[in-house]
């Protein structure tokens, strides 16, 4: 097959490309330029979008002996990921930009362009398994598993994707990179949000959304217990940084329960009020088999690296509903719910949707 | 493999490579006083005379450098500094909007760091800088002008400027004129003295010599402040141990390129015209860029409406065809060519461009290969660029 390897400049995508070459595919490497101004993105070894990362990716492609190009996706990335990120927070939700990037950039804009140019598939260094049965499964490396941020992909997108790393642990990937002479073998993992250079999400949002002072309200008493500088800076389940004027009557810590952009209110309350047993979600995709007619028993994950709980999930064309078998705290609108079927060969992603409440 | 990117770099001539290897085997620093040094010195000075003779300069006017970018920087910055030192008011650098980045970025640097003021002159739709545009500029700002720098032939679209006319206008106002002749030497007649320019950039690897060696021809009476300080090997304007092997090979290549220029250019132009005709036949909607007649014989430059140049490049590369989008890269990301934009092209047309450049190893088979691959690539690139329904 003619495949396009998305190469971030990190160790995972370099080894993924190497494995695609070894599997006999005709591989072309592409680095996505996502920053309008690369200097403003994370520098050095931490990010995936800097000039240094671009050079690391090119060097890896040269070692593998494959063609390499840089594709400018900065405008798309800005519109579909960065602006979306800001708009979601402004709407009181908690977005996952990595997931959005997969959905809109890597497996949409890039994949579409690749297919139009005659490529059969896109290869990435995500830690997830996608075998000949077409089912997306968790990586063997539970700590590095990225199936959650890939759960949003549709059947058509998965059919044109290759994840060669799913059967390996991160340690094995690093070892293989070293054996292959790839200089990125010991490059540190990227983490946090690539387009927020200093890691200060609140400051990033404040810069774009401005100050918008409002009330912090106690859910039980309805009393105003504090002020905030912008409701967008809060996430459901958050405990730190609330700066409440008055302690709760019972003296127990309070958490953000909800954000209401309309009234610019942050509502706080005790931990148990965070507990959720039903989750409603929108824009479902279902790739783990035919969409079930009735409720099915499975497991759901409600945030990246979050806990997994048993649930009964009902899904139709527009919505997904989950009855959780035990309560979960800190479920935030805007995050994805991903449904899994436990399987000895790797838990299978059944489908996902965006949490509304 | 069809190599259609000779304007980026062209294979070394056999005689230049042999001269390089033979000289590189010899030990000797041309500045040393002993026999080995004298031998190296002799090789360098013979080369200087050969380059001078081939390009209509005096040997003392040949300053060997590390290539075109260094020569351009030395001319632009060095002459600016010298002119400003002589008269503080002379700080205007006049150039054209279609220069190579080795000139443009040097000019911009002077603007940002050295208090230069910049006059970037417009070109017409074929990329030509008209002498009357320069005259108007100098009539207004001539008393403040430090220098004029304008390329002999454009590296992207191939348009050849009327350098002698431009230099004459500058001379009327007593302003030194530098020209970047990197693409011109060997393709069109270039004579330093006859052209009337004060300084001229030439480099080895565009005409069959090695990469990393070139020269600035600098008139004897033209002052330039050095960029590199040290041993003062080259007229005290350029320092650094002389690369005897590179210089010898460079001189061999310059001599060969200039000696065979007329015949070579005729053959190259015939091949290029064939390429242009067949590309037009294969993709009727192409737009041919640059001056239709007064252009480099090896250059063909097109816009492919509805395509992105970098998609076409990828597709042709996959079929073994090497060409160029001709645009500068910023972090490897193609920016729309400043040359095309200056010629009045819109962003889309600028981004849809490809340069095919021929050289001394080009054959009809190269063009056959291009024509076999091009229509399919254009069709695919067009599909890839077509707007898709949002998800």
Short account of what is shown:
Chain A: ATP binds at residues 6-13, 32, 125. The complex is a heterodimer of chains A (357) and B (391). By secondary structure, chain A is of the alpha/beta class.
Describe the protein's architecture and organization.
- The complex is a heterodimer of chains A (357) and B (391).
- Chain A has three domains: 185 residues, Rossmann fold; 58 residues, Roll (SH3 type barrels), CATH 2.30.30.280; 82 residues, Translation factors (Elongation Factor Tu (Ef-tu), domain 3), CATH 2.40.30.10.
- About 2% of the residues of chain A have low confidence.
- The two termini of chain A are 43 Å apart.
- With 357 residues, chain A is an alpha/beta fold.
- In chain A, helix 1 packs parallel to helix 2, helix 1 crosses helix 7 and helix 3 runs antiparallel to helix 4.
- The radius of gyration of chain A is 21 Å and the shape is globular.
- In chain A, a hairpin with a 5-residue loop joins strand 8 and strand 9.
- Chain A contains eight helices and 17 strands.
- Chain B is α/β, with parallel strands linked by helices and 391 residues long.
- Chain B has two domains: 132 residues, Aspartate Aminotransferase, domain 1 (Alpha-Beta Complex), CATH 3.90.1150; 246 residues, Type I PLP-dependent aspartate aminotransferase-like (Major domain) (Aspartate Aminotransferase, domain 2, 3-Layer(aba) Sandwich), CATH 3.40.640.10.
- Helices cover 43% and strands 14% of the residues of chain B.
- In chain B, the strands form four sheets. Chain B has a seven-stranded mixed beta sheet, sandwiched between helices. Chain B has a three-stranded antiparallel beta sheet with strand order 9-10-14.
- In chain B, helix 5 runs parallel beside helix 6.
- The two termini of chain B are 39 Å apart.
- Chains A and B meet through strand 2, helix 2, strand 3 and helix 4 of A and helix 10, strand 13 and helix 13 of B.
- Chain B: Its cofactor is pyridoxal 5'-phosphate.
